[in-house]
Design brief:
The complex is a heterodimer of chains A (378) and B (257).
Chain A: E1 6-12, E2 15-24, H1 29-38, H2 40-45, E3 48-52, E4 55-59, H3 61-76, E5 80-84, H4 88-99, H5 113-151, H6 158-168, H7 173-195, H8 204-242, H9 245-251, H10 256-293, H11 299-309, H12 312-338, H13 344-375
Parallel strand pairs in A: 2-3, 2-4, 3-5
Antiparallel strand pairs in A: 1-2
Helix pairs in contact in A: 1-3, 3-4, 5-10, 5-12, 6-10, 7-8, 7-10, 8-10, 8-11, 8-12, 8-13, 10-12, 12-13
Chain B: H1 2-7, E1 8-19, E2 22-33, E3 37-42, H2 48-55, E4 63-68, E5 71-72, H3 77-82, E6 86-89, H4 101-112, H5 117-130, H6 147-158, E7 165-169, H7 177-194, E8 197-201, H8 205-210, E9 214-219, E10 222-227, H9 229-233, H10 238-245, H11 247-252
Parallel strand pairs in B: 3-8, 3-9, 6-7, 7-8
Antiparallel strand pairs in B: 1-2, 1-4, 4-5, 9-10
Helix pairs in contact in B: 4-5, 4-6, 5-6
Classes of the chains: A alpha/beta (378), B alpha/beta (257).
Chain lengths: 378, 257
Amino acid sequence: MATTPLLTAVSSGDALELRPAGSWTASNAAILERLSNDVSPQLDRAAAVRVDFAGVRELDTLGAWLLEKLSRRATSAGRRAETVGIADNYSGLIDEVRQVNRQPQALTPARNPVIAKLSDIGRATIGSREDIEAFLQMLGALCFAILGVLRRPRSLRLTSLTYQLYRVGWQAIPIVVLITFLIGAIIAQQGIFHFRKFGADSYVVDMVGILVLRELGVLIVAIMVAGRSGSAYTAELGSMKMREEIDALSTMGLDPVEVLMLPRILALICALPILSFIGAMAALYGGGLVAWFYGGMGPAIFLARLHDAVSVTHFEVGIIKAPFMALVIGLVACSEGLRVKGSAESLGKQTTTSVVKSIFLVIVLDGLFAVFFASIGM
Amino acid sequence: MQEADEQFAIRVRDLVVGFGRRIVIDHLALDVRRGEILGLVGASGGGKSVLMRTIIGLIPRQGGEIEVMGSPINHDRATRSAAGRWGILFQQGALFSSLTVRQNIQFPLRENLQLSDTLMDEIATAKLEMVGLKPEDGDKFPAELSGGMTKRVALARALALDPAIVFLDEPTSGLDPIAAGDFDALIKTLQKTLGLTVFMVTHDLASLNTVCDRVAALADGKIVAIGPMRDLLQSGHPWVRAYFHGKRSRMLHPQVS
């Protein structure tokens, strides 16, 4: 049924007659575009143009538009253009196509690159102020929700809290144990390898113990929780925002912060110290195994040295940080979730932002705590 | 046989579709003539959308045959190539949210045809104007559109490749009566100018009355009545009677009943 399209141009005097034939449909798009481009030079020379549709077997919007474009090109140069031989079943389409694309394409003016850069910087600055505002607002709303719960303890959603605790705490244990175990083992191996040159390989126990308990244990676990649970919070709240579930909650007179965010953030605050402790133990275990099999230091000696090397203070320094990191992760995850707009793309963007921002803030917070503990001599 | 192929855009024979043990479509037969607007009505959850999605190959069937524009629909490559010949308007529009309106309309063109960027832009603008939107709307993102505009853009995208047949899933749901009336008129106009076959799932009694050439009623997994609106109003099937002669329908067209 489909036939190869043709476009014959016959010039008589200074008039040009175009005779399209065959199937002028989208399936022949590439040929059609070439055909209509080929006659353009002839078209520009002719004083009058006549398009004879008699040979057209099939026509769709694309074909009709290409032919309309040819005759429009002639009329715009002030020459006469007429169309003849339009079959009845195509006349509606051709009339329709005559109406479209009448407005000139609005060209977006090219922006000065310097100004564009400056305006980007300005927007980013304002945007970062909004970030801080959103974070503080979320913190304030959370404080209000906590106050409300303290006044009416029954309004705490225990079921939701338990479920979230199960999700971000219990279900996270295997992966946390695995990763921290490996980290502990790697630190011990590197320590033994390099300390051996100075004959100081027994000090690897001090290094593993202090590093893991003070810094690495809680930091690694916080980063993993930000990636694992923070992103989940953002995505959940974001899609609830997209589907107007959060609006539905507030119209029922419930506070979304109290119903959705408080249990999630509280669960994180409870879970992160526990996970940090488990992670630190797994890391010490990994370090101990490596010290035994790679460094030849038996478990009894390892434990004895560890006993001398670390004190409860080191452990406290590490574990005190955990709830604050959890608070930061939870606040960032929830506030980013609420900033999701209508599209799937924005959901992805906010989830990425949430993870990046919470990992960044966790490390900054760790630095601040290091300064603080150093100044109070812990 | 050849003649039958020419006459019918969609032929469904003995179709059985079910999920697990539940049979939704039970030995259903349906013919859609070329160039007509067929409205499909049925109870909510009664399998209208399932029937439409089965015809376009999204849901596997347990038995029966489906032909669209003379080519059989199966779960294979041939069906995917047939996809170029139909346009589908999903109930929620299903516009790609990361692309602008213009890019959404250009997407099928870009994937299926080789066109220059200028021509692609012109065709997209032409389609936009044909569905009654302004060229400036092309730079908006789907999230910035109202319900009616989303439907129009989705229709423009469905029509991008000038398909011979379009499937519309509740095209007027969620629109106010004026916008719904405009949309009906638009479908009618486009059907006339482009010579489309339209398969329309709808609950809108007004659009059934004004735009549909024939109406098919789906009940108990079968087509229980099919024909022009006038015939359906006289149908004796209890569900069809309840549908067209219920309180709500009487409010709409007291002159017929």
